[in-house]
Amino acid sequence: MGAKSLRVLVVEDRAEDAELTVRELRRAELECETLRVETAHAFRRALADFRPDIVLADYTVPGFGGMAALEILKTAAHPTPP
């Protein structure tokens, strides 16, 4: 029986940058399922539906970045550690 896949939510406006992150996770031999979002609405929905184990956020996504994601995460009823 294999290890549980890590659910990674990536806040990133550039698909190619998110793919670089995912590639490095896999290169480190981490089994992961990823979802990329770039808006606050999509982020909130992903917290509820995707239920990530970890959130990786670009600090400078236009209109919605790492600090905004952290604030939403802190107030969400979700056990993902900030």
Number of helices: 3
Enumerate the spans where pLDDT stays under 50 for 5 or more consecutive residues.
none
Q: What is the name of the CATH architecture?
A: 3-Layer(aba) Sandwich
| Overall SS class | alpha/beta
**What's the number of extended β-strand segments?**
3
Task: Give the distance, in angstroms, between the N- and C-terminal Cα atoms.
Answer: 30 Å
Q: Strands of the largest sheet, in order across it?
A: 2-1-3
Please report the first level of CATH classification, the CATH class: Alpha Beta
Q: Indicate the CATH topology.
A: Rossmann fold
H and E order = EHEHEH
Task: Give helix % range.
Answer: 40-55%
**Multimeric state:** single chain
Task: Compute the average pLDDT.
Answer: 88
The major pleated sheet works out as: 3 strands, parallel
Percent strand equals 15-25%
Report Rg: 12 Å
The CATH superfamily is identified as Response regulator
* Domain tally: 1
Shape descriptor reads: globular
Task: Please give the structural blueprint.
Blueprint lengths: L5 E6 L3 H13 L4 E6 L2 H10 L4 E4 L8 H10 L7
Parallel strand pairs: 1-2, 1-3
